[in-house]
Every structure is written in structure tokens, then in C-alpha cells.
């Protein structure tokens, strides 16, 4: 187990360097254009301004020199600054917790609702509840996230005024329920469906029949024997979903005016602020890697047959 | 001009003129509606791109805050009329070249220090000195000695650094005493006093010069009716009344919170829910079917703004050299149809070269702006037809697709040439190609005046070497007339000469004015009275609760 963990952690290093390199290359080299072309409106920027910025950000150096400088600073914990001179460290500290909070609320909502719906419909196949879950999840999967977002915002925020239409800067939990539901809605549907299939499949397996034959109470059969085995695909989904929720929150963040990383990355891409884009995405990559590792470790806990050496 | 940076904003430029007092139909009779003195409002804004240094701000998010925090030498009345003295006591000249500017005594910055003549000259010298890299530095190009404080990088973006400029200060600025200074221009410029109302010309307190400009810009100190309280990035900028303010436009309420939105739809929903008191431009989604008017009722404010949607020709491309062809294209566009169907009547068809809200502009002086299919076909035949494809370019990151496609379709239907519209992904890439003079077809442009005078609609756009003459239009007679106009003894003479220049431009059609911008704003029930400034920002000093 210890060696396995060490090996997995060491694997993070090349992945980390590789992704930063690729992202840096993509943003800097593949996106064409002079970062100051559109900055001064319908006229070119004054040469004095361009000269100052070029020198400040070493824009006259080849991209790999800039990448090396960026990585050197990164390992010293300095993500650099934006064109406007804001420290990217500060931007990350301000934006990441918001997105993480939103993603965690979304994750909790999708886990609770999705799992409950999936387990219940899996246990009672072809019942009214089962059909209801199937139809409603189909609905959630089919609707684009911004439709759900605008609809719920309009209904709850503007029409009925149960919640405020946008989230305040304090990011209170009560304000995050609607955005969290919107963000997690598609995953919630998938989780319900995966859990349903998994449960109904395992329901007929030998060990469940054995457990029932032994005369164990139904609560214990479902809660311990059935659920534990059926959770493996669901945990995979949930684990990797945190990264996806954080990276994919841009639409939800925009609709509910949440100051997260989605909008920040979007704006950074349009203004060609490669340092900001790379820094935020690098942390996202780390989130993905860590969550993947966690999921793998959880397998061992859920399935006694899996052991890591 | 300032450029809007809101991600989903429909309009790359938005501004407004006209005095608007709305929602006061019944409530004003009450008498006590305007007497609340300690109220607070929340208005919408966007995160300023750079710290709030006036000479360094070129976008609307930061520009609006700077307009609230500072008062310049002159101010532009909300009704779009001629500028009036604000901080200036008098601005005198005999030859439009040497100006003696007296400022009012006893005016204070927010830190309590007095506004003196040196606060202006030092601020202007800082902005003009090229190593400081101020984005608005070109505004000072009129002043004598500007070329001495600028230096250009000898090899563009190459490894060599720009040499130190020859001088640190412009020779044209001279402080006479604490409240008087003299400005000598490089050439006579009648419109110079008008320009002084632009935010690049505001004074800076002494403390600015003792710290890093970016540090100052995070906690700006101005001389306007409100002072800065706090700025939480991407969340809120808080302003409050400056009680020692001694000029005309004192605040009638106390606090102004500028809430920073990423999406105008989020702001609009907050407006409907009563969490926001003013939104300058409602989202496009609310314009369809006049939804915003139903939503807001008498709290909807429709205004027209001094900015024009233009399509410019790349005159450096031989295909577009012939004025007859350019005029044929212009006459082939059904502007009435486009403004009604695409913009739901929220913008009006352009019929003049300068925006008609601008002092010195003449309404209806664009004869090339009519829709005249017969004449268009005739001119095209005279020009020898058009070979190949005529592609109309626009930046696809704002909503220009619909109207640009309608323009291309209109040209195609009328002239029978192969015309279509094509989007370029981002404004930055789009501008890069324009700046490099590499456009191969007519392209979307837009112009919002920096200061209210017809000069701003001619010199930068149509004079050889003008700062936004991207199509490289050049006509010696226009240049000569514009030069005479700029150097005229007074504004009336200048306007007369500019009218002659515009008449020549009208023959050459270097670009196509398509529509005059409109603005659709909304306010909450709390606000009983509000006016918009000449560029469509909320006049916070007019707000009554």
C-alpha cells in the first residue's frame, strides 16, 4: 500500500510538468495574436505602453524561455501577475475556494439525490418510482445546463423570490443550493442511472441470494452486501466528477454571478494571459490527479478482493 | 475611446446622451421624494482591467469609476451640449494655441490636499512620458514638447530597449501660480478646451507621485463628488459621498456600491429582483419582443448615444480603391430594415457622418447613407463591377453576426455581387489584423466619441495618419480642410470648416455609417429620479431616492 501510494505520487510529477508544458504551449503559441491588439479599443495602443509591457513580461523572448521563467517562479510558489499587475496568487486564493465550495455542494447534492433515486429505483424495477427516475433523469441529461440554470434562477429568484437570483460574495450555503443543483444536475442523472443498473444487476447475484437465504434482515442485505459492491462504479463517477464540476462551472458561475475560476479562465483566454490560464488549469490538473488517486484507494476499501502492493 | 469588456455584452460600445428623468411622473409631486440625503444605491459595473489611474484606463469598467471619482477642468452637460467649466474658473486664449487656465480656489482632493495648478501639469507630464506606458498618452499629443517625452523602440518588439526620451516634461506646460497655468500647443487647436473634460486630463494629488501608480490605482484619490472606500476584486467597489466637495454636482445620496458582474443577465435578474438599483445596458435576451419594457414598465430608460456602428473599407486593398464602388455598397444597404428587424428599433439608421448628438455635427449629411438600389447598381456599373467575393468581417466575440450578415445579404441582393459575412474569433485577433492593415474586405468598426465635438469624428477617422484611420484613407483636400478647422480661432469657425471636410468625405465614402447606437437601461423602484451622462453612464449626482 505504501509503495503503491509512493509510486502513484511520483507519477504525478511527469504528468504535472507535461500538462503545464502543453497548456503553456497551447495558450502562448497556438492562439495567434498580439496581446495588446484589442486592448486600447478601436485604435492601436501607444508604443510607450507596448514597450513597457513587452519589457515587463519579457514578451520579446522566445516562448520556451518564457516557459522556463514561468516554471522557475512556479516552483518558488509565485504564479506571476496578470497584464494589469494583479498577483495571480491572489486571484487563485480568491477564486478557487468559491468554485470548490460550489463543486462540493453540487457533489453532495448529486451524491445524495442521485444515489437515493438510483438505489430505490434499482430495488423496485418497473415500479412507478423507477419510471419516474428514468424519465426525469432523461430530462436532466437532455437539457443543456444553461437552460436549467436560467429556468431555476428565473423561477426561484425572480418569479417566486424564494432565493436571491445571484449569489453574494459571502457564498452562504443556502445561496449555493440552487446553483449547486444546476451544476450537478447532469451528473446527478448519470449517477442515478449507474446506481440503478448496478443495484439491479447485483440484486440477482449469488452473494445476495446467499445473504437472503441465510435469513439476514433486508436492511443488512441491501445496506452492507448489496450497496457496498454496487458503489464501485458510482464512486468512480463521483470522484472524477469533482474535477469536472470545478472545470465545467463556467456557465453556472456566469448565471449566478459566482466569482470562481470558470469566468477567470475564460477572461484570461480572451486577453491572452497565459500565466493566469496555466496557473488555474495546473491546479485543476492537480485536483484531477489527487481525486483519481483517492478513487483508486477507495476501491480497495469497498472491494475486499482489490489489494494494492 | 473606451472599449467594453463584458463577456456577454451585446454592444462593444455603449453610451448615452439626453436628459432622462424617468419614473418621476407621479412621485415628484409628493415633495419629499428628493429629500433623502443618506440613501445608498447599488449599480452594475465590471471589474476594472487595470488599477484606477485615469491616464491608463481605456475600458468602460474602470472608466466609469474614474468618472465618478474625478471632476475635470470642464464637464460635459448630460444633454450633450457644449462643455462648461467645472474645476476651471476660466480657460482663455486669443489664438487657439496658448491657453491660460485658471482653476477655482479651495477645491480639495479626497485626502484633504488642495487642487492646485501643478496637480494638473504634473499629472499630464506623467501620462505623456512614454516610459510610464500610459494607455491614454496620445491625448496629450496636442501639447508642445510631446514628441520630446516620447521615444520609440528602435526595433519594434526586438531585444533593444527604447532610448530614454529627450525630455522629462513637456515644454508647453507652465505653472504661473498656484491657481493658474499656461498650456502652449504645438499647433492651434480650437477644440482643446473641449478635450479637457476627458478623464485623461484630470488632476492627480501629490501623493500619486510618491508611490507606485498601481498602488495608487488600488486606492485612488480623486477630486470628484464621491470618494473611494474599498475595492474587492470581481465583487464590489464601494464609494461614498465626499462631504468637502464644492462644485455644482453634489451628491444627493450617500453611498454608491458598484457591484461587479461577469454576465449582464445576472445583473438583469438582480435588477428585476430588486437587488440592483441601476443597470446601464440590459442584456440582449431582454430586448427581444420588448421583454425589458414589460419587465420594467416606467423604470425602463431608452436613450440614444453618441456612438455609431460603422463598416470601414480597407482602402489599402486595390479592390476598394474606387469611391464609386464604395458608394455603391453603402447605397445598397437597407439600414431601416436592419435596425427594425435586427435591433428591434432600439438603434436608428445612420444618416450623418458625425453622430448627430455631437456639437458641430449636422444631421442628415451622409448622402451615401440612403438606401437607393437603382443608384447603387448604376454606380457599380460605372465602377466596372466587382470581381470575386466581398467578405464583411466582424469580431465574433460580441453580437455582431446578425447585423453584419444582414448587411452582406442586403449588398448581395441589391448589387448581385457575391457578398457574405465572416466572423473573426476574438476582438484581439480582429484588431491585430486591422492594425497590421491586412484586412481583405470591409470590416465592422465602431466609434464612440471621446469628447463631444465633431472634430473627434473627423481627425482620428478620416485624416491621413489619424489614430483610428485604420483603412488608410487619404485625401489631401480633407487633410487641408481638417487642419484649417482644427486651427480655427473659435469653435464656430472650426465647425464650418469641418462641415466642408465632411462634404468631401461624403463623396469618397471611406467607410459606411450603418446605425446610431441606442441604450436600454433600467432602474429599481427605489430610485425616483436619475439622469444619464452624455456617454450614457448613470449620473450618480442626479440620483434621488
Task: Outline the structure in words.
Chain A: The chain crosses the membrane at residues 12-31, 102-120, 132-156, 176-195, 277-302. Chain A: It is a multi-pass membrane protein. Chain A: Residues 96-295 form the ABC transmembrane type-1 domain. The complex is a heterodimer of chains A (309) and B (545). Chain A is mainly α and 309 residues long. Chain A contains twelve helices and no strands. Chain A has two domains: 16-78, no CATH class; 94-308, MetI-like (MetI-like fold). In chain A, 75% of the residues lie in helices and 0% in strands. Chain A is flat. Chain B has helices spanning 60-69, 117-128, 192-195, 213-218, 264-272, 284-287, 291-296, 323-331, 335-341, 373-382, 401-415, 427-435, 459-462, 476-486, 491-508; strands spanning 40-45, 74-75, 84-85, 88-93, 98-103, 173-177, 180-184, 226-232, 236-241, 255-260, 278-279, 300-312, 348-349, 389-395, 418-424, 443-448, 511-523, 529-532, 538-544. Chain B has two domains: 40-260, D-Maltodextrin-Binding Protein, domain 2, CATH 3.40.190.10; 306-518, Dipeptide-binding Protein, Domain 3 (Dipeptide-binding Protein, domain 3, Roll). In chain B, the strands form six sheets. In chain B, strands 11, 12, 13, 16 and 17 form a five-stranded antiparallel β-sheet that branches. Chains A and B meet through helix 2, helix 4, helix 6, helix 10 and helix 11 of A and helix 5, helix 12 and strand 16 of B.
CATH-derived architecture of the largest domain in chain B: 3-Layer(aba) Sandwich
Terminal CA distance of chain A reads 5 Å
| Integer tally of domains of chain A | 2
How much is the radius of gyration of chain B in Å? 24 Å
Tally of strands of chain B: 19
Unreliable stretches of chain A: none
